[in-house]
Every structure is written in C-alpha cells, then in structure tokens.
Amino acid sequence: MSKTQPTVLLTGFEPYGGMSGNPAYATMRALDGEIIAGHRIVGRPLPVSIARIGAEIDDLLHEFRPQTVISLGLAPGEPVIRLERVGLNLADFELGDNEGLTSRDQPLSRQGSAARWASLPLRRIEAALLAKGIPVRLSETAGTYLCNACLYGFLERLEDQAVPCGFIHVPMTPDLAAEAIVRRRHDGMDRLPPPSMSLDLIVAAVRIAISETVSGSAPA
Ligand code: PCA
C-alpha cells in the first residue's frame, strides 16, 4: 500500500440479531480497495460486541492512521440512507450483542462528554445523494446499541484530530426483508413488512458519501 496515498477507513458491522447477513458488511467489502478521488478505501469489519468494540477501534486507528473514517451499520425498518449527526455516551440495549451481552444505562466513556457531533459534511452528502435520486435523511440518533458505540468511540478517539468521521445507517437489502417477513409469520403479529434497498444502490450511496467527504464532489 502506498504510504503517500491518503486512507479512508470504512468499517462495516458483522451480521447480528439472528439475521443471515448485514448490508453494512457487504458494502464495506464491495468498496474495500477502491480508489476514490485519490484516496484508498480500506474496508474492515467490526464485531457486534460491546466488550470488544473499543479495542477494535483502537487497533484500526493504530494500524491505518486514516485521514477519514466512515462506519456503516444496518438500521432494520429504515427506508432510506440515514446520516447520523451525533453519537451519545450511552449503551442501553436489551437485544443481546453477538456475545449475548446486554447493557442498561451505561456510559460508553467515564470522562467523555454526553454527546459528540459527527464531523462528515452531512449536508453536502445529503444534497449529493438527493441530486442522484437516492433517498436520504439526517438523523438525530444512532440509537444506543453497537452502531452508536462505534460512532461515539471513533469520535472520542479522534477529537483532537482533523479527521472527518461519521456513521451511515443503511436499510435492509431485499433478501433480509424477505427473511424478516418469513420470521414474522410465526410470531402472530400483524406488522408492515420492512422496507429495503438494493445493495447496488447502498454501495453507490456510500461511494458518493466518501467522494463528497474527501473531494467535495460526487464520483465521476
Ligand atoms: N446495526 C446495529 C449494530 C450493528 C448494525 O449493523 C445498530 O444499529 O446499532
């Protein structure tokens, strides 16, 4: 890997919650190794583990010293690309992580501030996606599960550095939505089927988000 080429660290979460895949992971894999506006994309997985995520973040920052950090996660039920504005200093979840751990009312960082702003050019990304016909929205919460822990964890470690950093939640892909419909048939609840977006469109959206962040323009 060229030492002079700036690096974009792109993380994607592993599958969780009994689902067979995670489009965040698949998108990270699809973009790993791509060059966007002269920046090399380094895609790496993150574990859905509250016990391990902090050390994983430390290791990735130490290994790659990225100029930009963008993390991806799945938001089941979300119909559009969702740009997170803020990470909260809170872990609170009943759905066990991939090691079976839950958390209640726990701060992620003892000394850390209550919240940290994502530092990606969110409005520019939003405008670029809308211009390409990709539905997107800004969001005031990344939840209180692992995706939020990831966003807060990166922002805390990068707070003194000029490294744009943020988190993008993506919808289910159609295969996961179909899987959820089958699963829900058995729970007797009459619920709307979950919305979905094709992996191709999600990958295109993340490529645009990276390009806007590193060069201020959409990919050619
Ligand atoms: N989504 C979960 C954790 C992993 C993922 O892809 C979340 O929104 O917190």
Keywords:
binds pyroglutamic acid, seven-stranded mixed sheet, alpha/beta, Aminopeptidase, 33% helix, 220 residues
Helix content: 25-40%
What do we call the CATH homologous superfamily?
Answer: Peptidase C15, pyroglutamyl peptidase I-like
In the sheet with the most strands, the strands line up as 2-3-1-4-11-5-10
Report the portion of residues in β strands.
Answer: 15-25%
Number of strands: 11
Unique ligands: pyroglutamic acid
Q: Report the structural category.
A: alpha/beta
- What is the approximate shape? globular
Separation of termini?
24 Å
CATH class: Alpha Beta
Q: What name is given to the CATH topology?
A: Aminopeptidase
Major sheet characteristics: 7 strands, mixed
Output the number of helix runs: 6
- Structural domain count: 1
Radius of gyration: 17 Å
Please describe what this structure looks like:
This protein has helices at 23-31, 53-64, 122-131, 146-157, 174-185, 199-215, and strands spanning 7-13, 35-36, 39-46, 68-74, 81-84, 86-88, 91-93, 103-106, 115-117, 136-139, 165-170. Helix 1 (23-31) crosses helix 6 and helix 3 (122-131) crosses helix 6 (199-215). It has one domain (7-215): Peptidase C15, pyroglutamyl peptidase I-like (Aminopeptidase, 3-Layer(aba) Sandwich), CATH 3.40.630. By secondary structure, it is α/β, with parallel strands linked by helices. A hairpin with a 2-residue loop joins strand 2 and strand 3 (39-46). The strands form three sheets. The chain has a seven-stranded mixed sheet with strand order 2-3-1-4-11-5-10, sandwiched between helices. A two-stranded antiparallel sheet has the order 6-9. It starts with 6 loop residues before the first strand and ends in a 5-residue tail after the last helix. The structure holds pyroglutamic acid (PCA). Pyroglutamic acid binds next to strand 4 and helix 4.
